[in-house]
Amino acid sequence: MATRVIDKGVVTEITTNGVTRVAPERPDGRTAPLVWAVLRVLMGATFLWAFLDKAFALGFSTGRNPETGAIDFFGDAAWINGGSPTDGVLMYALKGPFKGLYDGLAGQAWVEWVYMLSMLLIGLALIFGIGTRLAALGGIVWMAIFYTATAIWPEHNPFIDDHVVYAVVLAGIAYVGAGRYFGLGRYWERLPLVKRIPILK
Q1: Fewer beta carbons under 10 A from the terminal one: N or C of the chain?
Q2: DSSP for 28-96, written as a single string
Q3: How far is the C-alpha of 61 from the C-alpha of 92, rounded, in Å?
Q4: CA distance 121 to 42
């Protein structure tokens, strides 16, 4: 039998034979799932916004006049009106040792469709918590592409930029199966197709 005393986040446990153990108090068991759920939804919103802004020229990365700041909502820059969601990066932002790997992809319709559909699907999957592991892995692939295409070397740090941080967060989301926390992941994983093809988790 042991006596436990908790004071200022430190647990002191005194056993019957006089042995004392001191350890930090464990955080509430509900805290970590909530943190992972919030991170999952925020990452999903990041990918979904990339789709929405490019699709409809909402004025953040797409549709804003750089000189006047005016936004042409749903204008010519919008993907739905024939604008290219990838040409800006592929034509003007490539740099670093892997630049040659991405040269020549500008204007390729298949590249634009893959980019837009994956942004949409990854975003929705992470927000709703379905196919979370597959979505997170897809997100990591995109972070690696963005990093090697436009961020080597990072401007403010020798190695680390937001793409690397996002990739680590996505890896954590995949590892813990964060779709189960405040999402539809538990229901999704019970589907017969998902049981047969575990990568769809």
Answers
A1: N
A2: PTTHHHHHHHHHHHHHHHHHHHHHHHHHHT-SSSSSB-TTT--B-TTSTTSGGGT--SSHHHHHHT--S
A3: 14
A4: 15
Nearest residue to 33 via CA among 137, 165, 186: 186
Give how far Cα 189 sits from Cα of 30, 46, 118, 199, Å. Answer: 21, 24, 21, 10
pLDDT in tens, 17-65: 665 554 444 445 678 899 999 999 999 999 999 999 999 999 988 988 8
Dig out the tokens for 181 from the structure: 């926390």
Q: Which two tokens stand for residue 94?
A: 């490539």
Question: What is the residue type of 124?
Answer: L
Please write down the long-range contacts of 148-156, taking CB distance under 8 Å and 24 or more positions apart. 148/96, 148/98, 148/101, 149/89, 149/93, 149/94, 149/96, 149/98, 149/99, 149/101, 149/102, 150/89, 150/93, 150/94, 150/95, 150/96, 151/96, 152/95, 152/96, 152/97, 152/98, 153/96
- What global pTM score does this model have? 0.82
